[in-house]
């Protein structure tokens, strides 16, 4: 049922969305904990990324807007190579087999975290896929965006670069 609901939300977001032009929204809440394992079983804790700007993005392989924006996330990561920036892409409730099958087709270099039980989804109050949070080097969420984006567009690169340089 959860996959059906999230899939429907993804499809609704994707309808008529040929060009992403979403604006980052300032975030005023607290930063929830994020402790998940990657596909290799290695644990990741958001606290371990202090000193870097972190993009936490909740996604699923059955979500058209999620899939559409992934190549731009790869390009963003390349544009910011060598800078204190990292992407943590949190899969929403799929199995490792489903995610690995997807990644065999869509190549990414960023870390994929597994939220198999949906705890992070609930803690972060995510109800739209994709949902993205930009976290400053002190570990505070500064911006959020619900829906897809072309993350390597100049306005996003400038905003993230400003966060990196602000430290």
Question: How far is the N terminus from the C terminus?
Answer: 42 Å
Q: Tally the helices: what do you get?
A: 5
- Write down the overall geometry: globular
**Overall average pLDDT:** 88
Please write the string of helix (H) and strand (E) elements.
HEEEEHEHEHEEH
Counting DSSP E segments of at least 2 residues, the number of strands comes to 8
Strand order of the largest sheet: 1-8-7-4-5-6-2-3
CATH architecture heading: 3-Layer(aba) Sandwich
Structural class: alpha+beta
Radius of gyration: 15 Å
DSSP strand content: 15-25%
CATH superfamily: Glutaredoxin
Determine the CATH topology. Answer: Glutaredoxin
- Just give the CATH class: Alpha Beta
Uncertain residue ranges: 4-21
Q: Quickly count the domains.
A: 1
Q: Mind sketching the topology for me?
A:
Layout: H1 2-14, E1 25-26, E2 35-38, E3 43-45, E4 53-59, H2 64-79, E5 85-92, H3 96-105, E6 111-115, H4 119-123, E7 131-135, E8 141-146, H5 154-166
Parallel strand pairs: 4-5, 5-6
Antiparallel strand pairs: 1-8, 2-3, 2-6, 4-7, 7-8
Sum up the structure in keywords.
eight-stranded mixed β-sheet; Glutaredoxin; alpha+beta; 24% strand; 34% helix
Question: How do you describe this structure in short?
Answer:
By secondary structure, this protein is α+β, with helices and mostly antiparallel strands. It has 5 helices and 8 strands; from the N terminus they run H-E-E-E-E-H-E-H-E-H-E-E-H.
How would you describe the overall organization of this protein?
This protein is an alpha+beta fold and 167 residues long. It has a single domain, classed as Glutaredoxin (3-Layer(aba) Sandwich), CATH 3.40.30. The chain is 34% helix and 24% strand. It has five helices and eight strands, in the order H-E-E-E-E-H-E-H-E-H-E-E-H. It has helices at residues 2-14, 64-79, 96-105, 119-123, 154-166, and strands spanning 25-26, 35-38, 43-45, 53-59, 85-92, 111-115, 131-135, 141-146. An eight-stranded mixed β-sheet has the order 1-8-7-4-5-6-2-3. A hairpin with a 5-residue loop joins strand 7 and strand 8. The longest helix has 16 residues, at 64-79. Mean pLDDT is 88; it is low at 4-21.
């Amino acid at each position: 049922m959860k996959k059906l609901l999230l899939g429907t939300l993804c499809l609704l977001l994707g309808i008529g969305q040929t060009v992403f032009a979403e604006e980052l929204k300032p975030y005023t809440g607290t930063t929830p904990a994020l402790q998940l394992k990657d596909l290799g079983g290695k644990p990741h804790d958001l606290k371990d990324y202090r000193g870097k700007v972190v993009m936490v993005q909740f996604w699923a392989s059955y979500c058209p807007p999620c899939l559409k924006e992934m190549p731009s996330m790869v390009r963003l990561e390349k544009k910011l190579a060598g800078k204190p920036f990292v992407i943590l892409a949190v899969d929403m409730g799929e199995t490792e087999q489903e995610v690995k099958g997807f990644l065999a087709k869509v190549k990414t270099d960023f870390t994929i975290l597994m939220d198999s039980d949906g705890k992070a989804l609930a803690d972060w109050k995510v109800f739209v896929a994709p949902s993205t949070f930009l976290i400053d080097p002190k570990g505070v969420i500064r911006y959020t965006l619900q829906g897809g984006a072309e993350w390597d567009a100049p306005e996003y690169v400038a905003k993230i670069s400003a966060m990196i340089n602000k430290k």
